Amino acid sequence: VQLQASGGGLVQTGGSLRLSCAASGRLFSNYRLAWFRRTPGKEREFVAAIAWSGATPDLADSVKGRFTISRANTNNTAALQMNSLKPEDTAVYYCAVRRAKWPSPPRGEGYDYWGQGTEVTVSS
């Protein structure tokens, strides 16, 4: 599985960006795709996840109500729609895929494939 993240950029506080993660290779409906972000000097932070089928979206409390995660079956992509952006959302965002595992790892853990990051900068 290969992942390609795109869509980052510079935006003002309150603005919106839409990140896209294009996947190639064989993915099954019970795989899970997630977005993480990392800021220099901080731990990697879980942002959102969704089953490859499009079911069970999950958002971190810090982005709930502002971000939406979705899947597009037609072109094997997933998107992270980010609205009402804040300076603290500034980070490099990564998409990742986790194969189906039993027992299911804790939220944000056990991801097997990673894309390169896409940088998001929110100016105040």
Your description of this structure?
- This protein is mainly beta and 124 residues long.
- 0% of the residues lie in helices and 49% in strands.
- It has strands spanning 2-6, 9-12, 17-24, 32-38, 45-51, 58-59, 67-72, 77-82, 91-98, 113-114, 118-123.
- Strand 7 and strand 8 (77-82) form a beta hairpin.
Brief descriptors of the model:
globular; 0% helix; 4-stranded antiparallel sheet; mainly beta; 124 residues; 49% strand; 11 strands; single chain
Shape: globular
Mean pLDDT: 95
Distance between the termini: 37 Å
Radius of gyration: 14 Å
Q: Tally of extended strands? A: 11
DSSP helix count?
0
Biggest sheet statistics = 7 strands, mixed
Uncertain runs: none
Layout: helices, strands, pairs:
Elements: E1 2-6, E2 9-12, E3 17-24, E4 32-38, E5 45-51, E6 58-59, E7 67-72, E8 77-82, E9 91-98, E10 113-114, E11 118-123
Parallel strand pairs: 2-11
Antiparallel strand pairs: 1-3, 3-8, 4-5, 4-9, 5-6, 7-8, 9-10, 9-11
In short:
With 124 residues, this protein is mainly β.
